[in-house]
Amino acid sequence: MRDFNTQQFTEQFESLFFGPARAYASLSVDFTEKMLRAQLDASQAYTETGISQLRSLLDVKDAEGLRSYMEGQQKVAKELTERFKGDAEKVVSLQQDFVQQSQKLTDANVKQASENVEKATRKA
């Protein structure tokens, strides 16, 4: 009868389950942090633009001021459109990076598991 090797069992359990789970959790936390930072940056920029536009509107005192404000609105709309586009590209890039990193992690874990199974079958 073979003796049960708790150290070997612990190492295998770590390499097959806990290690990959921690690595994926770390990747997920990093992704979440990056997404939240991107959202906070975007929110801050949109809020500042909105407040700036409200302040500009408060400065309108006559027809000429209104015309100037309306012309400025076209510029602001163009800037916001570019900002939206950049923010969307950033989110897509973050998501693509997360998927690629997840795939690499999965591939490495599958390879490690295969190697562990191979070692275990050789010892048996």
Features:
mainly alpha, about 90% helix, about 120 residues, rod-shaped, about 0% strand
| CA-based shape | rod-shaped
The profile of the biggest β sheet is: none
- Global mean pLDDT: 88
Low-confidence stretches: none
SSE order in H/E notation?
HH
Helix content: over 70%
The beta-strand count equals 0
Radius of gyration: 27 Å
Number of helices: 2
- What structural class results from the helix and strand content? mainly alpha
Cα end-to-end separation: 12 Å
Strand content: under 5%
Organism: Halomonas eurihalina
Protein name: Phasin family protein
Domain Phasin: 17-110
Explain what this protein looks like in three dimensions.
The chain starts with 5 loop residues before the first helix and ends with a helix. The chain has about 120 residues and is mostly helical. The protein is built from 2 helices and no strands. The protein has a domain at about 30-110.
